[in-house]
Each structure stands twice: as C-alpha cells, then as structure tokens.
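Q: How do we represent a protein-ligand complex in a form that can be generated token by token?
A: Start from the inputs.
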Amino acid sequence: MPVPAFLGSGRISRSWAALDQKVWHRRSVQPFAVWLKGFNSDELDAITACGEKLAHEKATIENRERLEVSDNIRVTRTAWIANNPDTNWIYDRLWRIGYHLNQTSYRLDLSGVSEELQYTIYESAEAGHYDWHVDHSTMTPLPRKLSLVLQLSDPADYEGCALEIRAANSVETAPMERGTVIAFPAYVLHRVTPILKGRRRSLVSWVSGPLLR
Ligand SMILES: O=C(O)CCC(=O)C(=O)O
Ligand SMILES: [Fe+2]
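Then emit the structure tokens for the protein with 2-oxoglutaric acid bound:
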C-alpha cells in the first residue's frame, strides 16, 4: 500500500513552529501518523518473546464504567508488559516516537506513557477482531491522549486483521509493515477487521497528559 508522502518517518528537521499554515493544516487533519521502522527485527523479536512469556487473557471492553468480555465487539488475547529495567527501552522508544509524531501532527499536551503496554494477539482460529471503538476512557488513571500501535507481525503471516481508522468520510487502512508505529488521537474511531488466516500480534500503548480542556 503506498504511504502518502506526508506520512513519511525520519528525523524531524524543522520544528512545528516553522510549518507554514497549509502544511500545518494538512498534518493536523490526517487521521493517523506513521513512523516506519521504529524497531528493528531483533528488537521486535525481543518484544514478541517478552509478550509470549506472559499469561494471555481474553480482552475486555468498557461498558458503563465496567470491564466485560463481549465477543461480538472484541475477540483478542492480551497481556501487559510492565515497565521495569528490562523493558524500559520499549517504553522509552515509544514515547520518543509518539512525542515526535505528536509535535508534527496533533500537538496534544502530553506527559508520557503512564499505562502498561498491551501485548495483543489476534488468532484466526477464534476469528479475532475488535470492532469500532475509541481508546479514550474515564477509567484510566490519566487521560489517554495519543494511541500508538506497533506492528509486531509480518503481514505475510496473516490475512485480514487490518487496523482501520475512520477519517471524515472514508476509512483508512494503517500500514502493516512489521516495525511500523501508527499514532492517532485516542478519541478517533478505529477498528481491527477479523483475522482470516494466521496470527497477528501488536503492541498498543497510550500516551497520556493533562485533561482535555
Ligand atoms: O491491534 C491493533 O491494531 C489495535 C488494537 C486496539 O485498537 C486496541 O487494543 O485498543
Ligand atoms: Fe483501540
């Protein structure tokens, strides 16, 4: 899938203040921002090994301030990667990537990654998926402002299971290349379409900050 030119990754050579009004407008309305090759294959293997060692639980959704399993909305296995000296490098990298993408795209007021990282598994055997939802929630310790999704799987290892983000009048598919980080504001509607073949893994992280006002 061709990636639009404005979604390119790499070093930010100019500060956001230097963006002219047109460029700023184009960047601020994009439904998601992308950082290609955020992690190399050894690092992705290490994250996957770390996630595989954990106990995987059936994922829940939030309904009236309670967490519940709801198969018609979400069939996913999840585990939580805690922040410790062995895993801190993953938190650090995600924060740096999220920070830079936010500077050039959304300019939300962010303070850091304050929740554990969600290691996520979609299995074709159970038709894993996650229907339209937003990540913003009143139940998290701090407001989720920016969602980050790291593609841990090679797209050759599965079919379906596309991360789709709702734009104004269209639905956009996020890039699937292994190592890509996709960022979008936590109140933006998104979904993961049913997995048809194989297994897909992702790492989801939320960057939080002061209350929206
Ligand atoms: O796995 C993905 O691509 C996204 C998952 C997601 O939206 C979530 O867990 O909130
Ligand atoms: Fe989500």
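Residues 88-104 form the longest helix (17 residues). The pocket of 2-oxoglutaric acid (ligand 1) is lined by residues 118, 120, 130, 135, 149, 163, 190, 192, 202, 204 (CB under 6 Å).
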